[in-house]
Request: fold
Amino acid sequence: MNKIQQKKYELLYQSHVNALRRQGKAEKTIEGYARAVRRITEFFDLCPDCLNEQHIKNYFDSLIKTHSWSTVKIDRNGLQFFFKYVLNREWIWVDIVKPPSKKVLPDILTVKEIERVINATRELRYQAFILVTYSMGLRLGETLNLKIGDIDAERMRIHVRQGKGRKDRFVILPEATLDIMRLYWATHRNSLFIFPGGRTAALRSVSIQSMNRTGTHKALKAVVKSCRIYKSISTHSLRHCYGAHLVEEGLHLRAIQHEMGHEDPNTTALYTRLTKVAFQNTEDTINRLINRLKLILEVEV
Reply:
C-alpha cells in the first residue's frame, strides 16, 4: 500500500474497533475481529475497502489450509462485521463448510503426577499458579486475573469475575490454596493482583498487569517434561484434571458443573470419560440389579 492507502486503512481499522466497542463486544471478540481485518489486509497488501469477491474466496482458500476452524470462523465473523458496520456494504458471502469435528479426549495427570509437577517446579510463583489453577478448576485467564479483593478468606470462597461468557461465579477455596497464595503474595505485595507481571519481586510489587500467559504455558510444559511425563499437557489440562479427579472422588456432576462454571451439563459429563470410576460404577450397578433377581434355574439332565 502507498501512504494514502495506509492512512485510509488505519482510519477504517480504528472505525472497526470503535464499532465493536459501541456494540459492547467482549475484549477477546474485539481482538479476534480486529485481527481478521489486519490479517486480510496484510495478505493482499490492499486497503480492505478494495477487496472484491475473488479476494475473499482466495483469502479463505488459504486460511482453511493453514489455520483451525475456530480461526476461520472468527475471521469470517470479523470481516462480515467490518463490511456491514464500517464499509456499509453487503457482505460477500463465501460458503465455508465446517469439517467433521474430531472427538478427542484430552490427556490428564493423576493426582500423584500433579504433586510431582508442583514439587518439581523451581519458582514459587509457578508453584502457586499451578496449584491455584488446578485446585479450583480455573481457566488460565481466570487465574491470572485474580485480584486481592476476589479472595474471601472468611467464607473460603473465590469470586471469579467475568469468566467465560462474561459471567461471575463463586468457587470453593481450599485451605492449602489460600496458604500458598498468601505465601506468594507476601513476596511481592502487589496492591491489585495475586499474580502480577514482572521478572523480579520489585517489579511485581508495582506492576499494573498480570503475569504473562505465554510464560505460564512454557513453564508448565518445561516442568512436565522434566518430570518425564510424556502426555500432552497445557495450562488448560489442569482444569480437566480437576474435573476428572472430582468425578473420581464421587462428587455429583451437578456440583462439578457449578464449581467449573459450565453452561452445558454435557461439558461436565466429559470428565466421566476421562476416568474409570464411571465405568466401575456402571458395572457395579448393573451387577447389583441383576443379582436382585431370585432365579430358579432349570438344570438339564
User: Anything to note?
Assistant: The chain has a mean pLDDT of 85. Residues 3-85 form a domain with the DNA polymerase; domain 1 fold (CATH 1.10.150.130). The longest helix spans residues 3-22. The two ends are 95 Å apart (CA to CA).
